[in-house]
Amino acid sequence: MSPATRPHEDELVARYFRPLATDPGAFRLGDDCATLSPPDGTDLVLKTDAVAAGIHFFADDPWDLVAKKALRVNLSDLAAKGARPLGYLLSIALPADWREDQLAAFSRGLAEDQAAFDVSLLGGDTIRSPDGLVVSITVLGGLPRDTIVRRGGARPGDVLYVSGTLGDSALGLALRLDPTKADAWSLSSDERDHLARRYLLPEPRLPLAEAVRRHASASMDISDGLGLDLTRMTRVSKVTATVETARLPLSTAARRALGADAELIGRIVGGGDDYEILAAIPPSAVAGFEAEARAAGVAVTPVGTVGAADTPPSFLAPDGTALVLGTSGFAHF
Amino acid sequence: MSPATRPHEDELVARYFRPLATDPGAFRLGDDCATLSPPDGTDLVLKTDAVAAGIHFFADDPWDLVAKKALRVNLSDLAAKGARPLGYLLSIALPADWREDQLAAFSRGLAEDQAAFDVSLLGGDTIRSPDGLVVSITVLGGLPRDTIVRRGGARPGDVLYVSGTLGDSALGLALRLDPTKADAWSLSSDERDHLARRYLLPEPRLPLAEAVRRHASASMDISDGLGLDLTRMTRVSKVTATVETARLPLSTAARRALGADAELIGRIVGGGDDYEILAAIPPSAVAGFEAEARAAGVAVTPVGTVGAADTPPSFLAPDGTALVLGTSGFAHF
């Protein structure tokens, strides 16, 4: 609350954030607001997601990766809705002991991801944090009017697909908290690095967005674990679902860890931070969805089916018995 | 980083935030993203601004006022750009010791301001803060394509107007930090309360937005003090300006304080947190602007003029000498 001023906010913005604001509507961050002129007939898709030191990332994580994760968890939601990113706004609360090299890394991380995902900074705010770094990003996406794919459209008979692999991030976090698990799970150093990286850096499935938009009856991104997120999808769709856990797509590393400790299936299904897409595809659209996913270069795997009852989903073990999971999901709270 | 889950995030959202999400595009906060369908021909105006405990407000401020301030500082920017609010997204980082009555107050404050300013919650994210409360809001406004009023359009001969009164918030903060000043400044209890309230609760000048859009050649909101913000406007407009400080609109309370301590002019011009509009009006538009401001019920006062030189603005004392201000503005950083 000190009225003492640090006169450098304008310079800080000029140095680290203006280079990211390449959209003409960002006015080079030199005005109070940005503008965006969506093409006529566009629906905007809006998402805000925040990450905080000590909660969503470790206080000593490199800031380029923190920046990328903060952007990517938002882009992941756009992908799940079938939308194309139009731009983003950034609100960053800096700890008192921030260093210029950290902010330079933050900016560099965003620049790399802007190039990777064809999106740019529209505006932002830089404040001091009461304690650790807090990054809040709002993304804006666009799609043709009335074509958004919602959570609530799953219908009995739909096939449930997930993109990529599940559980890597949760296992990466477990390793981070207890590095001795790498040996307990018989992981190679490459496998350990794979899991660690997947925790630090999710992969938003934007290349899959158009296939989702064209074919899915329901879709969402898996951020709190398949268990909890599928429960949310079935609840709002007023359906149920059955997932065969033996069909869940796993990385080599996750498969090896699961081989060493069968109980890890709970963490894989319930751990969260996957940022993969969960989509319900009508049987008639399965072939088209799979073909377009293949063309987009994103692996998709059928893991179960949607049923008619308005009850929570079931997760079946390889022997056909229902798995009772230790945790129903990972709420970041 | 604890993987421990609080399973209550969904319930918390349902209880305190869903009632605010009245726009159909918010999907009652039950989907990953919100949608917004701007009318064809609309330019979106985007702003994100964050406030943090201990930096922008006192940790013991009532949460309904914190919520209102967080929303209002963003709405103020829309007003300055001539835009109408379309909706907002909220990112809230809660301290570990948050209480339900605080969150209820936060929600109530937003509900009251939603009604006052005809805007509603489109989406949000609730996370745990590393320490104190941090609130980041992104507002979306709209206006007819290519009619945004920018900072950089001020032209020689334009008349500089400010809305409302200046300095109240800075004086209110000074009082908060040192309550004995109320006596030193000979303030009545009403006057003291007025200044304290203006610090806690800015008044976004949305009713003035249309007059600004129709008549101003440049406009911005005054958040870091007239001194710094006018300097920004003249710099990007490549002009200068002269302000007669005797013409600055002051409340009775501020006028009394200034009478007791003439040095306070520095705080009034440089203190910030005014959230009033600074607009440059071409001479031919002055009559129309004043008439529309009057019709909108917002006081506007001419305080100076724009000059041709590309130099920093001057602030003239009543005797015509240039004031050298102790501080050129209040950067929240």
UniProtKB/TrEMBL annotation, chains A, B:
Summarize where Mg(2+) 1 binds, as residue positions.
48-49, 125
Give the residues the record marks as binding Mg(2+) 5: 224
- Sites binding Mg(2+) 4 sit at 32, 77
Which residue ranges does the record assign to the PurM-like N-terminal domain? 30-141
Which residues are involved in binding substrate?
Answer: 56, 273, 330
What are the binding positions for ATP in this chain? 124-125, 151, 223
Q: Which InterPro entries match?
A: PurM-like_C_dom (IPR010918), PurM-like_C_sf (IPR036676), PurM-like_N (IPR016188), PurM-like_N_sf (IPR036921), ThiL-like (IPR006283)
Entry binding sites for Mg(2+) 2: 49, 77
Query: Which GO biological process categories is it annotated with?
Result: thiamine biosynthetic process; thiamine diphosphate biosynthetic process
Pathway in which this enzyme or protein is active = Cofactor biosynthesis; thiamine diphosphate biosynthesis; thiamine diphosphate from thiamine phosphate: step 1/1
Q: Where does Mg(2+) 3 bind?
A: 32, 77, 221
Record domain PurM-like C-terminal: where: 155-309
Q: According to its UniProt record, which reaction does this protein catalyse?
A: thiamine phosphate + ATP = thiamine diphosphate + ADP
Q: What is its EC number?
A: 2.7.4.16
Q: Which GO terms describe its molecular function?
A: ATP binding; magnesium ion binding; thiamine-phosphate kinase activity
Hey, which family's this protein in?
Belongs to the thiamine-monophosphate kinase family.
Misc remark for this entry? Reaction mechanism of ThiL seems to utilize a direct, inline transfer of the gamma-phosphate of ATP to TMP rather than a phosphorylated enzyme intermediate.
- This protein is called Thiamine-monophosphate kinase
